[in-house]
Amino acid sequence: MEINAIQASFNLDHIAIESSNPKKLSKFYKEIMQMDLQLYNNKDLICIGPSRKLIIVKGKKNKFSYAGFVCRNLECLEAFRTFVIKRSVEILDFDNPYLKMGSFSVQDPDGNIISFGLSSNEKQNLNNHFYGPLQHLTFASKNVENFQQFYSDKLGFKISDTVVHVDGSLATCFVTSNHEHHTVACFKSKNSGIDHHSYEVRDWNLIRDWCDHFSNKDVKLIWGPGRHGPGNNLFVFIEDIDKNWIELSAELEIIHDRKKKEWPQKEKTLNLWGKAIMRS
Ligand SMILES: [Fe+2]
């Protein structure tokens, strides 16, 4: 049996990014993003909060390392593996240590490593932290067409929306592996790598609480509050000390069965309320 990413219903479990100073960066996530710190194998720093996990590995600032998606059981994972192998996607040797045994990893056309598996999260006492599960990951790419084709045709993500330049080329694609509007997105850019990672707090009032918390810690918003066109989500952005962009989102559209929407590449598509950070 084979099933695609949507049928397996994958959620983003964790991302790993590089930093030249993991210790310093992890302190930001502890203090500002309300995450506890753990050390793995005397090497990686794990920043962990309720339903959110970020791994910081020693390396080059702002460089994406890998991401892990999880589904509900081994049966779905195995059927998804069959789907991927049937489409001639190479399975990497890379073994993601933050997923249970049996996970596997692939590389997208830009070389981003994406792992699929089962969650290894143990129950932890994280009740005193603000709510904000890790929800989506957005990349930058020189070739959004290739990116979209890989995620939709080879992995079976569903294309929810696209943003299109006047000449018809793709400015942005939004793809999902569950009922949320997008779990992965990609912006056309001169660079490739990570654009931002996002935490879905669901409720506008929680964005308020997070922003009050940021203010208490003297962290300024770099964009928002605003509302995206695609996904219709409310958002604010901050950046960490390595200048990685972090989004807090609420009211992200839930999709059950609708056709893909196409949006024009203009400021209002990125922010229905006002100014936008245009990537291309
Ligand atoms: Fe986002």
For the biggest β-sheet, the strand order reads 13-14-15-12-8-11-10-9-16
Broad CATH class of the largest domain: Alpha Beta
SSE sequence, one letter per element? HEHEEEEHEEEHEEEEHEEEEH
The pLDDT mean sits at 95
Task: Please identify which CATH superfamily of the largest domain we are dealing with.
Answer: 2,3-Dihydroxybiphenyl 1,2-Dioxygenase, domain 1
Distance between the termini: 41 Å
Number of domains: 2
Quaternary structure annotation: single chain
Q: Could you describe the 3D structure shown?
A:
The protein is an alpha/beta fold and 280 residues long. The protein folds into two domains: 113 residues, Roll (2,3-Dihydroxybiphenyl 1,2-Dioxygenase, domain 1), CATH 3.10.180.10; 137 residues, 2,3-Dihydroxybiphenyl 1,2-Dioxygenase, domain 1 (Roll). It has six helices and 16 strands. The chain has a nine-stranded mixed beta sheet. A seven-stranded mixed beta sheet has the order 2-3-4-1-5-7-6. A hairpin with a 7-residue loop joins strand 10 and strand 11. The protein starts with a helix and ends in a 10-residue tail after the last helix.
